Amino acid sequence: MDAQGRGRDEGIDPADQWVLNPDTGDYELRLTPSSGRSAAPAGSSAPRSSGARAAAPRRKPEPETSSPGERASVPGQRGGRRGAGGRGGKDEPRKQGGRAAAPAAGRRKVKAKSGKKKALIWTGGVLAFLLVGVGTAGYVAYQHFNGNITAVSTDGAGTGGFSKDRAINVLVIGTDKRTGEGNEGYGDAGSVGHADTNILFHVSKDRTNATALSIPRDLITDIPECPTQLEDGTEKDIPGTTGGRFNTSLGQAERTPSCTMRTVTELTGLKVDHFMVADFNAVKSLTSAVGGVDVCLAKDINDKDSHLKLSKGEHTIEGEQALSFLRTRHSVGFGSDLSRIEIQQQFLGSLMRKLKSNDTLTSPTKMFKLADAATKALTVDDKIDDINKLRKLGMELASVDPKNITFTTVPVLDNPDDKATVILDESKAPQVFSMMREDVSFTAVAKQEKAEEKAAEAAKLKGAKADPADVRVDVFNGGAPPGSAQAALDWLQNEKGVLKSTNKANAPQDVKKTQLVYGPNQADQARSLAEMMGMSASALKPTTTDAAYMEPMVLTLGPDFKQAGSALSAPQKAPENIQRVEADKAVCAK
Questions:
Q1: What is the pTM of this model?
Q2: What one-character DSSP code corresponds to residue 53?
Q3: pLDDT > 90? residue 300
Q4: Count of CB atoms within 10 A of residue 588's CB?
């Protein structure tokens, strides 16, 4: 039976259908609405109350399978899954068949406590529904939450889905769409829903740390051409824009979240795995579901534009007031959108701390309400369009500790041609992007590497270095932008004096990252070239046999090669004076 429908006649909260079994320490689904009866023993079938209604999913279910041995499929998505069978890329195979069968019905269990939950909720309210897969795995909950989910196509813009063996990038988009009760009074009531708030969550490959990168809506950037599946199922190539505002990557000219995905990749060089979209209603419902979020103000605020009126000091806010707080900019900092980004980051950090508190994690009522609100409020991409997929993503995020999560913002400068917009700070932004691409933490996280491996890597870069005139190398393009081999050759010869170098055009096969292959007797040449190009020790690939007389080394440029003269290895620390907020620290808005 549907946990939402069952028990309403007797005034029972749906979340209270989960009861603690003192014998097992697990939360179990109670199949009768009567609060005076104890739960049936685990594994048995509970009697049905004579007043209970027949089972009925929230959404119309798909037809049952014809085979008597198969289970019924789970309900379809709200409004259908736009993008199913639509456009896909070579890295994104189309889905075959329908949704996976649901678990067998009957009594299901939910663990009372889980060590993984605490770290799992680091993403704040926007990703909070990932905890559903860990906390409410029963069939009824699965069926109910699955019916809440709305999904749209990635249009081949992403990676095709996250993987256990690499870093994860999730793009969270907050739109300025004013639809919904009480939202018409905020700004442009007719907005199509632009990319107003944008956070790229990067979770490290080893899952020890994460960076949440805010991208200003008013950043001037190029928006690429976007192959898009529209709401009516038709496909359209939406032309790109040179020098437009970042927020027009969504909504403008029928652009969908997949276009924002592509724009982020063009800007940062990071491939995005998934996206999630929240509107004003999502903020209100999620903050209310968690029981409010604690914020701190360093001064009184009475903002006529955002409608926020709060006194100096600490407050717990939710719903409409939380939305007003997140929209405030004229009364904080310098009164710009960058100031608003800072208080949004402070708010999300507080929300993370609230969500990981025992008060939230040990309350079945709060957990259920939060998951229900989140799955109703958010739109996700079609690669994570059901609870099972979200659960798997959540488990990958589970080990991240909030103290190792850093909020930061793309370094920008005021646009000299337009005071209302900003442009990239070219002295700092490339360094931030490079750190994220190369999975370098913004926090002091200890690396779990064996001492002998570190010593072996370091040894490659230590020792004598050959004179540039004695460095002999063939340059291949193995996945770098077109023309890179010639650009690198020109730079090496004209700027560095490496005259014994040759452009060998395309490599026999592409490489994931730039690499230099050399013989043991060419180690001094390799160290010299690595120093010139800013290559890390891991990019050096010595062979086991010496190179022949006058045999050149082989330099193969990979996708990490952006332009000649730029260091290939990522910096090991963030640029000086960039804006940042640590998720585990409370900060008062000024």
A1: 0.65
A2: P
A3: yes
A4: 14
